[in-house]
Structures are given as C-alpha cells and as structure tokens.
Amino acid sequence: MSEDVHLSQISMDFGSFRAVNNVEVTIKPGEFFSFLGPSGCGKTTILRLISGFMDPTEGAIKIGGKDMRGIRPNARPTALIFQNLALFPLMPIWENITFGLEVRGVPKAIRRAKAEELLQLVDLHDSADKRVSQLSGGQKQRVAIARALAVEPKVMLLDEPLSALDLKLRQHMRAELRAIQKRTGVTFIYITHDQGEALAMSDRVGVMSQGVLQQVATPQEIYNNPTNGFVASFVGENNVFTGRVKSVSDGIAVFDTPKGNFSAKLGQNVSVGDTSKLYVRPEFCTLHREADAKANSIAVEVSEIAFEGNFVNVFVKDHSGDTHMVQVQNDPAVPPPALQTSCQMVFNPASCMILAEANTGHSGH
Amino acid sequence: MQELIRRYGISLSVIMAAMTAFWLLALVVIPNLVLFKFSFRLYLPVDQLGGPNDVYTLKNYITFFDSPIHINVFFATIMYSSIVTIICLIVTYPIAYMLAKVLKPTDTATFFLVLLIPLWVSEILRSFAWFIILSAQGPLNAFLVGIGLIEKPIRWITGFQAVVVGLVYAYILFMLLPIYNAIQALDTNQIEASQDLGASTWRTHWRVVIPHSKPGIASGCVMVFMLCAGSVVVPSTLASTNSRWFTEIIQQWMFEGLDWNVGSAYAFLLLVLCIVFVSLVMRVLNVRLVDIAK
Ligand SMILES: Nc1ncnc2c1ncn2[C@@H]1O[C@H](COP(=O)(O)OP(=O)(O)OP(=O)(O)O)[C@@H](O)[C@H]1O
Ligand SMILES: [Mg+2]
Fold it and tell me: Per the CB < 8 Å rule, is B196 touching A103?
C-alpha cells in the first residue's frame, strides 16, 4: 500500500546555484511527512526530484529500496498534487479523476464506477459530469486528491495544495487530508510554508532553509527543542537575546548579555566563549512584581497589550528600549498588568535555549 | 466606441473609425460588390451595353458547371490545398511544441528570427527560388546525383508536387504561429500532471496538448487552406502543363479572355465553395468559429 522514501544525500544544482543541498532523510511507509520552509528554499525542487521531472545532481532517491534515477515520472509509484492543481479543464470531472486509469487501459465502465467511488471518498457526490470550471476552490482541491488517489500511488506528493484556499476551508481541508491519509495508509509528503499546517497535520516535519534540511523531528520536538536559531524563529514566536556563553555546568549555561546574565540550556554546536543567541517563547515568559532568584529576570515596562481572544499578547520594553513579548492566557480573574506598569519579565532556564545560527550546509552533517 | 473616445479623445477616435471604415468599405466591400454584380452580367461588345441583351443572368456560373475540365481543376485545387494543409500541420506541430515548451525562451527568440527571415523576401522570389532548386539542372538534382542516390536528374516540376512544395514553403508560418500561441498558453503543469499520472508522450499529446491547442490548429489550417486555394504566384511559377490551379483559370478569364464577368463568377465560386468545404470540415472535426477567432 505504501512505501518508504529515502533521500540519500541529494543535491540539485541549477547552473551554479545549489537549490537543494545534501539532503538526507528517510520517510517511513504510511507516514505523513512535511517539508516546511520559506519561499525559495527548495521544497518544490525536492518534490519534483521525487516525482521524476528531474534527477538530482548528486545523491540518490530510493522508493521502497529501489533507486529511481533514470525512471521517468510516468513509471514512478508517486502521484503529485500540483501547487495550482493542474486539473484538465477540457475533461469532465470523472475523466479527470480516472485519467491515470485510462492511460493504463482500464475499460470505461470500470473507470466510471471507480470515479464514483473516489468522489464518494472525497465527499463530492453528483459532480462526475461537471466541468472543472463549475467547481469551487475546495471542490477542485478534492478532485485533485481523488485524481491522484485513483492511480493508487505508493507515495503521494502534495505541493502546498491548500495555499489558494481561504482560512476556513483550509482548516477544514487539513482535517480532511489527514483523514484521507489515515484511511488510505499512503505515504504523504507534504510541502508547505505554513508552520501551523505542518505542525497540525504531520507525523514528522523537516524544516528547510536555503536548500539545507535543518531539522527532522516530530512537531512537538521541532517546537520545543529546535536545533538551531533558524528553526526556532521560523516555527513560532521568540524573544531573542544576543550574548556570549560564559560557562556551562550540567547542560545549563551562563549567558552573558548586555541586559544581564541569564541561565539557559545549551544547544548543539555552541560552546563556551561563543557569541550566540538565546531564544525564549513568549508563552514561557511571565510578568511579576518582584525578580525571581531561581529564574532569569529582566526589568521591563508594559508598552502595549493586544487582546487575541483566548490569550493576550503583552508587549514590554526593557531599559535599553528593546521590545519583548509575553503571552498570557485570557483569564478575567487575573487581568494582565496595566500599561506603563513597571515589572519583571521572568523565564525559566529550562524553557530557553542558546542556539547556533542556521546550518548553511558548508560544515556537512 | 465610447471606450475608444475616452481613451484617445474625439478627433483621434473619429480618424481611427474613419480609417477602419474606409478600409472595410473601399478595399473590401465595394470591390467585392462590384465583382459580384459583374458576375451576373454578360460580357458584351460596348455597343450592346444597356441594350436588350444586357440582363442579369446565371449564365457565367453555369459556364463552370458545364465545363468538366474546370470542375476537375477545382477539385484538384481543393485536394492539393488540403494536402498542403496537412503537410504543414504535421511538420509544424512538433516544431511549435518544441518552441513553446521545450526550448529555453532565449533560444526560442533566435529560432523565430531564423524562421521569419525568409518571410522578408517576396513570395515571387521565394517561389522562383524553388523553381531553380527543383529544375532539372538545379542544385537538388546535382546534390542527389552527387551523393549517388539517383542516376540521372529527376524532373521535379511536373504534376502538382512542385506546387505542393512551394505552397508548403510559402504558408507554413501561418500554421506555425497560431499553433505555437495555443500551445504556449497551455499550463506546463498540465503536461507534467499527465505524465505523472502515467501517460506516455503520445497519450499526453493526444489527450491534453492537442485538445487544448485545437483552436490554434483549426485557425492555422483554415488560414493555410484559404491562402493555398487562392494562391496565384506559387502555382503560376511552379505548376506545369498537367497541373493547373483554379486561380490560374480565373486569371485566364480575366486577363487573357478579358471576360471579367465569367472571371468574377469563378472567383465567387471559389470563395463560396471553399467556405462551404471549410465549414464542413470544421463541423466534422467539431470546431466552432468562435474558437478560431480567439
Ligand atoms: N528550473 C529551474 N531553473 C533554475 N532555478 C530554479 C529552477 N527551479 C527552481 N529554481 C530555483 O531554486 C530555488 C528553489 O526553488 P523551489 O521552487 O524549490 O522553491 P520553493 O521552496 O518551492 O518556494 P515556494 O514556496 O515559493 O514555492 C529558487 O531559488 C528557484 O529560483
Ligand atoms: Mg514551491
């Protein structure tokens, strides 16, 4: 039903430009795996390499243990859902869906039945004879999924399939995609630049920057234990302090910054004496009247309050004028401090990390 | 019209409208109407003009249907124009696809320049060039004999083969450009989606690229067919005694027989019958006129 996909140290050059740099990852059978990264980081290039529209400059792609080099897209066990869907506007919906079966010589009656079955699966009854132009964005989306499922791929590749949809529909389709994946058990490789989407849907996420895979882990791990500054700042919000690592004991470092000494966990590739950055999530910061001797504290003044509904973002300024963000749960019984209140922003050493910059690929893995 | 005035102002709009009207009226409608009237009158000596014999009649048209030779020439013209159209289509489609989807945009520009340069030379010279190339002592025969492929020179300019070659060469770009435009407008992702779903190259063209470019193919075919059927220069340069083109007969009536009346009747017959033929073919291939106008 599904296969694993092994990207074995693949690189892709366009002229002198390296769009994908030494990416190594194994995607397990039946897994929902997301590549997450900013625009232009090489996500689409990776999908096109897996589906066979080009071969990597270096390295190998193996699907179910079989090297795919030289095998054309029409002979690979993958199905790609394009960023713009690429439905065939001149065919009715049911022919769109069963195009992959048509090219395999399946008789028309069987194809028609299969189309009805798949339309059922993606919750689109009575649309078999409609034209593509008669469908809404979300319906087209589902037709594209059905068309890809029809060829019973071992691996489904999805290139930001939800980016064209509005927020409500996007959230609905997230759940739907996830459900379809669970039902069919097909390996899904999903591409997105939307961190919320990646975290909510995936079994594992690979975060990319400039062609380099920065971290591969579960959504929780990515969010709570990012391996470097790029991952930390691309996924979620942070308060950032620049400084120098003074000393380390038991994995907790003393970090010397112009705003005082902080204790924090020491990340990979950072050692004593290095100039680096400390990252702390806004929801791990609290505001208190007094400094806390056991935790990191910094004197601040409340400068702005943004009420977001279920939580409140409190923006505070320290003495040198830098702004930090503290996120507190909305609780009418405990309102956030008023504007201009002087207080201490406190955060725990265990919930902040000193991290190196992004991996640029030069040092290798 | 209001849009035009808003954009260019009154005076410029009036000038543009007047020029368009002049073009349509003076250069298209009026000459055709005059010929149309001619075609129903008889060719009479001057002293009988306005006399009892000067009446409206279908006699000029009947002349054509009474003349098996002319009917034969007409069908030969239709047939060989169709053959030229089909050859142009077969040769052009892969080139158009390559230009639109395979080559890099910078290479496409160079390629187009190379293809368009011959168009700067007049049609007469280009036909004559083929006359020289295909003549018994010409370069083609010299080359074929030179490489030992044939023993002695072949007579190329006999029957319709030289005309077909000349017409293909003269009008092939009128096929290339609309097909190129149509294929270029096709989203490359659709081609890739087809491949990704397992389609072979043939199947992708048959099910995705050709249906999409059908309007371009149709307008290219109509254009080439009409240009061929109405061509004078190429057949009169490259035809021989056993291959006459219908336009040559019209020319004979008008300039050798000086009978403009039968000549214009023949010209209208050619026009009407070609339109009927093209509409029939379009009906069979399920193409609509609005598709072509796109
Ligand atoms: N065929 C190509 N020729 C040259 N450069 C290319 C080609 N395809 C992609 N690139 C370059 O490779 C880089 C990565 O492109 P890619 O399309 O993979 O980005 P992406 O992560 O999918 O971005 P987005 O989120 O905007 O879709 C870009 O800088 C792009 O300009
Ligand atoms: Mg992309």
Answer: no
- Chain A neighbors of B199, CB-CB under 8 A: 74, 99, 103
Mark whether A138 and A278 lie in a shared domain: no
Ligand 1 — pocket residues by CB below 6 A? A 14, 19, 37, 39-45, 193
In angstroms, the CA B144 to CA B206 distance is: 37
Same domain, yes or no: A185 and A236: no
CATH assignment at residue A281? 2.40.50.140
List helix spans (H) across chain B.
Answer: 2-8, 10-22, 30-38, 59-65, 68-97, 105-116, 123-134, 139-146, 161-184, 188-196, 201-204, 210-229, 233-238, 246-251, 260-284, 289-293
Pick the residue whose CA is nearest to atom 12 on ligand 1. Answer: A19
Note the pLDDT of residue B156. Answer: 80
pLDDT less than 70: residues of chain A: 1, 362-365
Q: In terms of DSSP bridges, do strands A212-217 and A252-257 run parallel, antiparallel, or are they unpaired?
A: unpaired
What average pLDDT is seen over chain B? 87
Residue range B126-154: mean pLDDT, rounded: 85
User: Which ligand has an atom closest to residue A42 CA?
Assistant: 1
- Nearby residues of A228 by Cβ (< 8 Å), 6 or more positions away: A214, A215, A267, A268, A269, A355, A356, A357, A358, A359
Name the minimum distance, in Å, from the CA of A208 to any CA of chain B: 24
Q: Which of B196, B202, B207, B212 to mutate to test the interface with A (most CBs of A within 10 A)?
A: B196
> What's the A56 CA to ligand 1 centre distance in angstroms?
14
Task: Check CB contact of A54 with chain B, cutoff 8 Å.
Answer: no
Residues A147 and A21 in one domain: yes
pLDDT tens column, B101-125: 999 888 888 998 998 888 888 888 8
For the stretch B179-215, pLDDT in tens is 999 999 999 999 999 999 999 999 999 999 999 999 8
**Owning domain of residue A347:** 230-355
Those residues with Cβ within 8 angstroms of residue A296's Cβ, 6 or more apart along the chain or in another chain: A262, A263, A264, A346, A347, A348, A349, A352
Q: Which residues of B touch A86 (CB under 8 A)?
A: 187, 189-190, 192-193
Count of the separate structural domains present in chain A: 2
